[in-house]
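Entry 14. Structure prediction run on the chain below.
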Amino acid sequence: MYEWIKALHVIAVISWMAGMLYLPRLFVYHCEAEVGSKQSETFKVMEWRLLKVIINPAMMVTWLAGLYLVWSGHWYTSPWFHAKLTLVLIMSGVHGFFVRWVRDFAADRNTRSQKFYRIINEIPTILMIFIVVLVIVKPF
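Output returned:
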């Protein structure tokens, strides 16, 4: 069963990261749209659906499958796992910010610039790189 749960975990992580990398790009383009325009309303729908249909469920499956793997594989005593867990908690916090920003855009309350979202777009990428290295290499 462990290998099947691991496969589910990897699929969920890929889905979560795809959404986490795409959503800030939508924010960048949404900044250009005039409030109340058809384009702005389309971005609102796209952001909401991406969050509710892909990102949120993928994060939940990632966490549930990951917790099973940690418990079943006794990884909770490994130092590399503690570092990974810290980074995944940070990624989950970034996810929380994305939820808030989707709500801000939906209510036409965005106060941030395209540049801000372009920079934010790099955070999930950097976290993902370090998480993957920790999991594959297990450096400590």
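The two ends are 27 Å apart (CA to CA).
Filed with the rest of this week's runs.
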